[in-house]
Design brief:
Blueprint: H1 7-21, H2 26-32, H3 39-49, H4 51-59, H5 63-69, H6 75-84, H7 91-94, H8 98-102, H9 108-112, H10 118-137, H11 145-166, H12 172-175, H13 184-192, H14 200-214, H15 219-225, H16 231-240, H17 244-248, H18 254-264, H19 275-290, H20 292-311, H21 315-329, H22 339-343, E1 350-351, E2 363-369, H23 373-384, E3 390-393, E4 399-404, E5 410-415, H24 424-438, E6 445-449, H25 452-461, E7 468-471, H26 480-486, E8 491-495, H27 501-516, E9 521-522, H28 523-533, E10 542-543, H29 549-561
Parallel strand pairs: 2-5, 2-6, 6-7, 7-8
Antiparallel strand pairs: 1-9, 3-4, 4-5, 8-10
Helix pairs in contact: 3-4, 4-5, 4-6, 10-11, 13-14, 16-19, 19-20, 19-21, 19-29, 20-21, 21-29
Length: 566
């Protein structure tokens, strides 16, 4: 068949059609047909659109790579080939500076001089990011800008945040020594590009105050120097760590601060993807709690943007601002917003007790323990939480059941932390899961008790029926998206830092009391009561469900628009 006249021509036509319809897949197809007569033309066009792919294919030793290397009259392609074929395997150090290298603003020699020094290399990345951001603000997008930001994020995480997070038990002088040489602009990127990873104490005790001191406490001037790059993420992050009021207070002109917050919520439909909308959504609960006047301003501005989008027949804008308005309005229960009716999602700020009961009127909770040394110790402490009004059934060798003896019927199933070395803890979890499923006992509450490296297992095993999910482990906050994919209606409590027994235990106690009393879980007052019950350090790293609005916003947007590839 392949010897038929016209076979090759047909294949070449298919390749061209693929390039027109699915440009990102074209390099993979070119690898199969590197001798196509128009291969050079495709390489030139696609190389400028997808320089990262060009770099990857230029590294290989095959016909397509040789074809790429044969193009010597295109400065961009020549530069990428030089990086990809670098004998010292240093191409990934150079690639983030691609546009400036092509324009001869930066040389390989300059990069070589700093690439092995974490601070100096990070400084070069930041200076280039600031250059590219300023150009983007003027409508000139640098080639490889996303790759630069990705590299900057990686270095911020690996060279700085991982270190200061890891030293959280040390004195501030020791802990934050590595970030002392950084400028205000560099510290800004350390913070804003590690959102969700940086510990609260790393931000509030180290990065933020040092950044502001080095910026001479002039937040407005700092943002101007940065061309307002990632400013929505920064403001959202500052709100989450209760630093937004402080930051805005450093502006020399109060009207500039007000204008910035107006811009913060404006024209979100123009942004690529939903990240800016997520930042606005995530910020609101913190602003509502600490800066009510600003929250009212945000709500009004969201409404104005909704009206603007509707009058302009901008369906994307209508969807974004309708969701934000309803989410924000529902923060005040007196507004009577029914999110299930309005957006097809469960309430954000409360969990009705009725939604937690099964058909027999009983609340089922499941707790996951792990059989390492810590798990065994925590398990006994957990059981000791349940005294008067509770009865513990220890008859099963793989799990225990804690049943309420007063108030509403509540049953808490917890697997025993049997030795992980023999996999007995995993067997116990599986056996308990099977028992619950076979007896139609669907957990409405799921609690993870274990280190962060066990958290994914809990997410894999947890029941989709879970309405309240507690992830009291290190970095459980980063699993919110995975949990929502498993449990659509889950209200998630997660920690950004180290999960602490002294904080976890009061939470379990308070939640258990509310369930046994048959009360709705109203998260804002619940969180205030929870705070009063614990004085242990690290409480601020526990994130209540109503501060996870970004994930809820995405979920509502998908339902509203039918879009799935977001």
């Amino acid at each position: 068949f392949e010897e038929n006249i016209g076979y090759t021509d047909v294949k070449h036509m298919q390749l061209l059609k693929l390039a027109q319809k699915y440009p990102p897949r074209t390099f993979a197809a070119l690898k199969l047909y590197p001798d196509a007569p128009f291969a050079d033309s495709l390489i030139r066009v696609l190389g400028h659109r997808y320089p990262e792919q060009l770099y990857d294919y230029a590294q290989a030793n095959n016909k397509l790579s040789y074809r790429i290397q044969g193009i010597e009259d295109d400065p961009l392609i020549v530069s990428i080939v030089k990086m990809a074929r670098n004998p010292n395997k240093s191409g990934q150090f150079y690639f983030p500076f691609l546009d400036n290298i092509v324009k001869e603003k930066t040389t390989i020699e300059e990069i070589d001089a700093v690439k092995n020094d974490p601070v100096k290399y990070f400084r070069l990345l930041v200076n280039t990011q600031m250059d590219y951001a300023a150009r983007a603000a003027s409508g000139d997008t640098a080639i490889g800008f996303k790759s630069l930001t990705h590299k900057l994020e990686q270095k911020a995480k690996d060279d700085f945040v991982a270190k200061i997070n890891g030293l959280h038990e040390m004195s501030d002088g020791v802990r934050f020594r590595s970030i002392q040489p950084l400028t205000a602009e560099e510290l800004y990127y350390v913070a804003v590009l590690t959102d969700g990873l940086i510990y609260t104490s790393s931000y509030t005790n180290g990065v933020y105050p040092l950044m502001m001191r080095k910026a001479n406490n002039k937040g407005d001037e700092l943002l101007k120097k940065l061309s307002f790059d990632h400013y929505r993420k920064f403001l959202s992050q500052a709100a989450a760590y209760n630093k937004l009021q402080n930051f805005l207070g450093t502006f020399s002109n109060k009207q500039d601060a007000a204008d910035l917050m107006t811009t913060f919520v404006s024209r979100l439909e123009k942004s690529e993807g939903l990240e800016d909308g997520v930042d606005v959504a995530d910020s609101y609960a913190s602003v509502y709690e600490t800066m009510p006047d600003l929250a009212a301003q945000m709500l009004e501005n969201v409404k104005l943007n909704y009206e603007r989008s509707r009058s302009g027949h901008d369906q994307r804008g209508v969807a974004i601002y309708n969701i934000l308005y309803k989410l924000f309005l529902s923060a005040d229960s007196s507004n009577g917003v029914d999110l299930t009716k309005e957006l097809g999602i469960p309430p954000v700020y409360s969990v009705p007790f009725s939604s937690l009961k099964n058909n027999e009127g009983r609340v089922i909770a499941q707790v996951y323990f792990y059989g390492d040394k810590d798990g065994m110790g925590v398990f006994n402490g957990f059981l000791n939480t349940y005294g008067d009004g509770w009865k513990i059934d220890r008859s099963n060798k793989q799990w225990v059941v804690i049943n309420s003896t007063k108030g509403e019927p509540v049953s808490i199933y917890a697997n025993r932390p049997l030795p992980e070395s023999t996999g007995e803890d995993d067997k116990a979890q599986r056996a308990l899961g099977t028992y619950l499923e076979e007896n139609n006992l669907q957990p409405a509450v799921t609690i993870h008790r274990g280190h962060s490296y066990y958290a994914n297992t809990t997410v894999d095993y947890m029941a989709p029926s879970s309405k309240i999910v507690f992830m009291g482990s290190c970095g459980g906050f980063n699993l919110i998206d995975s949990i929502l994919r498993k449990c659509d209606d889950a209200h998630i409590i997660a920690s950004k830092q180290i999960g602490r027994t002294a904080i976890n235990r009061p939470f379990f106690s308070l939640l258990s009391e509310k369930l046994r009393a048959g009360k709705d879980i109203e998260w804002m007052p619940f969180w205030g009561e929870f705070r009063r019950r614990t004085s242990a350090p690290g409480f601020e790293d526990y994130i209540p469900p109503y501060k996870n609005l970004g994930a809820i916003f995405i979920k509502a947007y998908k339902k509203e628009t039918g879009e799935t590839d977001i």
